[in-house]
Specification:
alpha+beta; 9-stranded antiparallel sheet; 6 helices; 9 strands; globular; disordered C terminus
Length: 241
């Protein structure tokens, strides 16, 4: 059984104090240069008392709340040069530099599935990622589990959540997957506005390194646990000798 890993989305989440969601309008985003003027909306913006959301056909969504702003992009099949949210997030905090930003997270999410082998996906989670045992054989339904891991890296930490999920498509097709949800967490240094802005920019500029680290961990630490993957690596080493 050969698994495939798909990178689904990249989110940049910036915690802020007394952030005003009503500022988030398509006109503001375009006229201030945060997003290209030619971008079209998928649907009308969503506004409630505490949340505003604007979604573009480019795959970018921006969600504003009183305590944070989220920049989310669907990145499946996109080259890194075509990913927009890092640039958009940097422009947003530059334009709204008076907001008291407090922390930032770079959050990639992807999934592993086994094409046309739905049972293989569950076996991968319950028998490869988890250790088989009688603790799984309790109750009238298969045990549900979520793994939360924290990796201490240089200058930041990575929180990685691994769990089973089901992808639902517009044609009502469903596919069982194992989700890998990452969160690279950064503190914002500095007291003055310019110092904090510089700290924010430095964190955002790490997005490609963080994305590579996340993908390397999934591919070499989790997918490499599979017998077929291990055999493939051994064959490659043998042929190179």
């Amino acid at each position: 059984m050969q698994p495939s890993f798909v990178l689904q989305e990249l989110a940049i989440v910036i915690a802020a104090k007394n952030h005003n969601p009503t500022l988030l309008t398509p006109d503001f985003l375009k006229y201030s240069g945060i997003v290209p003027t030619e971008w079209e909306l998928v649907r009308p913006p969503v506004y409630t008392n505490r949340v505003a959301q604007v979604t573009f056909k480019s795959g970018v969504s921006i969600i504003a709340e009183p305590n944070r702003v989220i920049f989310l992009e669907a990145v499946e099949d996109k080259e890194s040069t075509a990913i927009h949210v890092p640039t958009i997030a940097k422009k947003y905090v530059e334009i709204l530099s008076n907001v008291e930003y407090q922390a930032i997270g770079l959050n990639p999410r992807g999934h592993v599935s086994f094409e046309n082998q739905p049972e293989a996906t569950r076996k991968y989670f319950t028998e490869t990622i988890l250790a088989p045992g009688s603790w799984q054989q309790v109750g009238v339904a298969p045990v549900q589990a979520t793994i939360n891991l924290t990796y201490t890296l240089e200058s930041r930490s990575l929180n990685l959540m691994v769990n089973e999920a089901v992808l639902r498509f517009p044609d009502e097709k469903t596919v069982p997957v194992v989700l890998f949800s990452g969160n690279f967490s950064y503190n914002i240094d500095g007291e003055a506005g310019k110092e904090k802005l510089s700290s924010l920019h430095q964190a955002i500029d790490n997005w490609q390194t963080d994305l590579e680290t996340y993908q390397e961990i999934v591919n070499t630490k989790f997918l490499a646990m599979l017998p077929d993957r291990a055999l493939g690596v051994q064959e490659l080493l043998t042929s190179a000798a």
